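fyi for ur records
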Amino acid sequence: MKPTTMSSSINRDTAWVYLTLISGTFLAWIPLIGRSLPVADDFAIMRLVAHGGLPGYLHALGLWRPLGHCLPIWLFLQNPSYHPVLVLLTHLLATILLFHVCQSLFGGIRLPLLAALVFAMFPFGYEAQTWIITCNYVVAVLFFLANLLLLARHEELNWPVPVLFVISSALAVLTALSNE
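which gave:
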């Protein structure tokens, strides 16, 4: 009976942590949600994506930030309301990843929760909400934290080193393709 009690306690703690992180992120970012308007460099990238799609973008700019530019611009062209939701959900996922990274490195719940809440509410993504092509900052952080979590939990995962290397390298490449 004890393992069941311990398991339900862990699930309850996890549920409260996720609820706290989701609530904190939404409360901090909800004023930024709204229709984004293109500014500055958005117009040049929008023209490339609108006329040529991903192939046109890659032909003109090569592999310069394709993950951080193309998807947000394409979503904006589909519906201007999609971009802010993409940024918010990407930041929320990065916040949860940061919690798990901190929990792997430091243990416990309080310190990782505090670090993740500060990250969740810190408006580093404000520019990504107001300037469409700067979504790459949030996307790069997401891939970086996923890689960091993978490396922090490598002993728990017990994967062969070549598999770990390939996944970690892929996440590093995705980070690089999101930003410089």
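Residues 2-29 form the longest helix (28 residues). thats all i got for now
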